[in-house]
């Protein structure tokens, strides 16, 4: 079986570099690295070996990053996550999504049904297509298609109503 000391020594640098790539903050990355390995200690007995241990560690680290973002609501708002979801990278600096657009998006998502709404909200919150596929017992491709089509439909409806940020 695995020994936590060996895992820590072998992967700590890789996990730290991964966290820095997410956070762009070395100090925060060190804190999240500690939290990641605490979570590993608590859940090592649940690791079944279905994936590479490094993949599992990165998944835990990413979830610790998401937990941090969720707790830090004053700096990472739902508006900001929605903006990231709907905007193209080059448009992020120029586009501003206001409360009316967010409310309209939520209203449109309500019309799409629970599964589609949850898939889109999971993407907004930063979950991977793999994680979404696992939750809904569908393929990653299906998760991508559902997300893409729902996002496209929302964009079209927002544009039609003159609320688009594009």
Written overview of the protein:
The protein is 72% helix and 0% strand. By secondary structure, the protein is mainly α. The protein has two domains: 4-71, Rna Polymerase Sigma Factor, Chain: A; 78-160, no CATH class. The chain is elongated.
- Show unreliable segments: 88-98
Helical proportion? over 70%
CA radius of gyration is 18 Å
The structural domain count equals 2
Order of helices and strands: HHHHHHHH
- Sheet/helix structural class: mainly alpha
Report the biggest beta sheet as strand number plus sense, adding barrel if it closes.
none
Counting DSSP E segments of at least 2 residues, the number of strands comes to 0
What percent of residues are in strands? Answer: under 5%
> Average pLDDT, to the nearest integer?
79
Q: Span between N and C termini? A: 52 Å
How many helices does DSSP assign?
Answer: 8
Overall spatial form:
elongated
